[in-house]
Hints:
By secondary structure, the chain is α/β, with parallel strands linked by helices. Helix content is 48%, strand content 13%. The chain is built from 13 helices and nine strands. Strand 4 (60-63), helix 4 (68-76) and strand 5 form a beta-alpha-beta unit. Helix 1 packs parallel to helix 6 (127-133), helix 4 (68-76) packs parallel to helix 5 and helix 11 (244-261) runs antiparallel to helix 12. The longest helix has 29 residues, at 169-197. The radius of gyration is 20 Å and the shape is globular. The N and C termini lie far apart (62 Å). The mean pLDDT is 97. The structure holds nicotinamide-adenine-dinucleotide. The site of nicotinamide-adenine-dinucleotide (NAD) has 29 residues, from helix 4, strand 7, helix 6 and helix 11.
Amino acid sequence: MERIAFVGLGNMGAPMAKNLLSAGLSVNVFDLVSELARPLAEFGANVCETIEMAVADVDVVITMLPAGKHVKAVYLGDETSKGVFSLLKKNSLVIDSSTIDPESARIVGEVAHEKGIQFVDAPVSGGVAGAAAGTLTFIVGGHEGAFSQAEKILSHMGKNIFHAGGVGSGQMGKICNNLMLGILMSGTCEALTLGVNNGLDPKVLSNIMLQSSGRNWALELYNPCPGVMENAPASNDYKPGFMSKLMLKDLGLGLEAAAQSQSAVPMGSLARNLFALHAMAGNDELDFSSLFEFYQKSEL
Ligand code: NAD
């Protein structure tokens, strides 16, 4: 049986690792914050004190880290470590499911290639609920052989697995998706606030828009107005979920990609600025749907 190391056990990584364990796979787990790793022991994980212990003798490494700089430091090394690539066997498979800039994914992929290691970038969509239910969408970049190896493992954590192209294309697909999500969440907050300010019940208004042309993912599965949807972060003090600072990062990645390709992204730019103002006001660690409060507070 393949041995897997799972690194990064935050809001997404922990439920994803649990699904691998439920499928009966052998999983070593590591997070810089050891309190996040320890609870996985009761699901059968081998909890490791260091990343070196986690990746020793494994066939597959999966990372779920915040941003490109963390992914590069983990695989390529930094002033404190030699990097995971120097510890892996040839032909090991590396799956990075973090959302990062495509350039960092390509740099990591090139070093993997030089070392005879298979690498795919495989960012996800579906949020914490999708991670817990094992219904994530994976958007994978890498060559065909690496993709088919990765697909078997990803199928324990996700429902839809897309091959977007070569290394880095998974990230590009994900960045486009989250540009759209940032815009949709902003628009949903805006429309709900407008309705409430004009006397409508947010539950009734949400139901109306769900059966009308304003229907979208944020409204359907992640309603940002407290009390409308019992299981959404909005009804749980905006506990993440998907932190505002991560949405801000993703919209920044969208703007960088737009600058490089001379694409016009006026709506994405506006959404990024809204999330920047919201994060700067001290909401960076709240769920991104807390942007709803930005609209509340901006009432005159
Ligand atoms: P998170 O901050 O909750 O988790 C990241 C984890 O990585 C933390 O526990 C942190 O301690 C750990 N970490 C950082 N550096 C490390 C290192 N060097 N070694 C080991 N562990 C390290 O973030 P999250 O919400 O789980 O998101 C992870 C990634 O997935 C991000 O790139 C995010 O953009 C993306 N994503 C998140 C969601 C979501 O709904 N939360 C959805 C889709 C994609």
